[in-house]
Amino acid sequence: MATRRLSDPITIGLIGGVALVGAALVGAAAGWVAAGAPSPAAALVLLVAPAVALAIVLYPRPGTALLAALVMANAGLVLQEQASLPNIEKGVTLLVAIGVLFDRRALEVVRAVPWLYGVLGIFAASRLFTALTVPGSTSPVDVAQEMMFAVLLVFVLSWAIARCGALIWVLLGISIAGGIASLLAFARLVVGIDSTFFGFAPEPLFTTEQLAAIQRGGIVPDETRASGPIADPNFYAQTLALAIPLAIWVALRGPRLSVRLAGGASALAMTGGLLLTQSRGGFIALFLALFVLGALELRGRWRMLLLALPIVVAIGISVSGATERVEQLTEITNPRETTDPSIRGRVSEQIVSLKMLADEPITGIGVDQYLNRYQEYALEVGLDERPVREPHSAYLGIAAETGIPGLAAFIALFVVGLVVAWRARSRFAAMGRPERGAAAAVAAGLTGYAVAALFLHLAFPAYLWLALGLVGGVGALAQRQESQADEPAPTDDWQATPAESRA
Predict the structure, then answer these.
(1) Per-residue pLDDT tens over the stretch 175-189
(2) How far is residue 233's CA from residue 227's CA, in Å, rounded to a whole number?
């Protein structure tokens, strides 16, 4: 693929445009500092933003890797909380999207996987419809902005993978970010370093209601579980179940030894990080994700390794100290007698979700209204006295808040995503391409996320959009490689040249 030279008119225009924006940002930063910025870090970021913006626009592959790493590290929310910065995930997404404007064939990415974008659009429409029609819902403007970011993030990731050859860059970015976060959690919990590492390895957060319930149950609050940059062990485990299969593929198929070593180290670190979460749902999600990856990629006698997978998981649970937590799952059949308040609460939340859906099957009770109306239903159920609770199941939570249409669209996101990844793998295999394993890893990661979503609500949706962006990317890349044998699609040659000509 031809590279764009610095003397090309379009490149000169890009540099000029970014330079003008950069000058404006520098002036704004100077004024902000003089007026008293929220934090020195915020002003510093704004000052260096022009150079970073120019690099991201001209070098979309590392720019997209940075975007994927930021999402994996939850950097947008962490830095917003710690340094009063704007959400940098959204800013980098917009910068990568600038490159799309100069690609005349960018929409081929959408045409390659129309069903994926179709169900994503239906899901967005269902949330917006509920926000417009049900009193008390989150503002329709906020819902529209949230879903616009979702679609844009999915699109720019897909575009960079299919049109710029950023697949290995993106997977490596996710792997390294996940590995570093896990190492930080290890340093705090195991080594004993008394630091939250600027918010990327905080202690688990306990609400007043959670602490009261724990005290009533006679249980000491467990602060030994890794919570990663999410500040919640269970959600953190969900992100790792998504990322570990991707890191395994990087370790096995990376283009260089250094890349493979980085992928392997990240996979090991994230596996250790997931064990430190002691998340029961996370163990189940990772087990099924690895089973899918092995079933798709192992051949011949190597498939016998799948039989050892349950043993490996059991050993991991034992080593992590989560044996007692797993054994408590047997108490779910009698939630009124359980000594684990989380089990009693989860059962109550599932019943409440179904009651909400039965009352409002078409529109749901309103976007983000489960919290406000939980106690109203929970008093009738009689299992949980806590006034404010989340549904702790993305499927039932979305069903309760947006009705059957929203639930159907949400389930379709996973079904269509897995089908797209499966077809991409088949196409890569038919062409003898190494990306076959990448498509299998994406399918496995999406499986892990979907399984964990059975036990967790949709509190951090950016990870779902990250997974769907990978799905769209491998799907569009497979079609392009199949249809353009005489003009092969970009490969991950690690030649980070200025933004490629995509004619």
Answers:
(1) 999 999 999 999 988
(2) 4
